[in-house]
Amino acid sequence: MDGRLKNKTAIVTGGTGGIGLKIVEAFTREGARVIFTGRDVARGEAVMSKFGGRFVQADAAECGHAEKLIGSLEDGGGIDILVNNAGEPGHRGGIETTSPECIDESMSVHLRAPWLLIAAVAPLMRSRNGGTIINICSVAGQRVGAPYLPYSVAKAALLHLTRCAAADLGRHGIRVNSVSPGFISTSIHTACLDVDPVRAGQIADMMKRLFVSRQSLSRTGMPEEVADAVLYLASDESRFVTGTDLVVDGGLMWGQYGQR
């Protein structure tokens, strides 16, 4: 396959559904050798059978996550691309109602795990004279108002980690960027709700109408549109881009004038 990522080796965390699945699909289509993670073995095997790649069962919140992934590289091979995508919305709550456990959970998934994985792949990328790292952030980390406060704060921290890592690793030819999706049509928005599937669907439709009403573009974003942005940052087309956040939100950050 003569694609944009031909002969590249990539790790994609959280690659069995939503945005992560579309990243795996795009990377394999463009010729990369993809190692992707997820918690569910059956889903991971289904992705392998459809798109290829290699599945590693792993949970970003667990200690040893980075070591497990690096140990999965064949013959101690190198890595060219890392996408820190694994995430979860966490718990709703404000400053006074959020427990220490909820804070720790969001920080471990959205900050600690990416940090440790970046630190683990950096020596391997240096041995190849460079590489590219993409962190999946969120517009929730750039604006206030989201009900999932620990998630928002953790994503804001991940955004700043992206900039700090870019400044620290750039001298080794390692580029570090991020993508911040807005409201994208995936199951993450209702996954944490303790409701039946019918009610979850109703809530998802309500959220869709709410967010679309606040965007410049009057439609919901799709996971493959985020994957396209990640593919650009992973490819040589962005070879002089580092420390940058690419917002894919249909204009949610800036809203709209007038009424629909």
- Structural class of the helices, strands and pairings? alpha/beta
How large a portion of the residues is in β-strands, by DSSP E?
Answer: 5-15%
Strand numbers in spatial order across the main sheet: 3-2-1-4-5-6-7
CATH topology of the largest domain: Rossmann fold
CATH architecture call of the largest domain: 3-Layer(aba) Sandwich
Total individual domains:
2
Order of helices and strands: EHEHEHEHEHEHHE
Mean pLDDT: 89
Rg, alpha carbons: 18 Å
| Count of extended strands | 7
- Major pleated sheet: 7 strands, parallel
- How many helices? The count is 7
Uncertain stretches: none
Could you give the distance between the termini? 45 Å
Q: In the CATH hierarchy, what is the superfamily of the largest domain?
A: NAD(P)-binding Rossmann-like Domain
**What is the overall shape?**
globular
Helix fraction, binned, reads 40-55%
CATH class label of the largest domain: Alpha Beta
Describe the fold and architecture.
The chain has 260 residues and is an alpha/beta fold. It folds into 2 domains: 203 residues, NAD(P)-binding Rossmann-like Domain (Rossmann fold, 3-Layer(aba) Sandwich); 31 residues, no CATH class. It contains 7 helices and 7 strands. It has a 7-stranded parallel beta sheet with strand order 3-2-1-4-5-6-7, with helices on both faces. Strand 4, helix 4 and strand 5 form a beta-alpha-beta unit. The longest helix has 28 residues. It is globular. The chain starts with 8 loop residues before the first strand and ends in a 12-residue tail after the last strand. The model has no long low-confidence stretch (mean pLDDT 89).
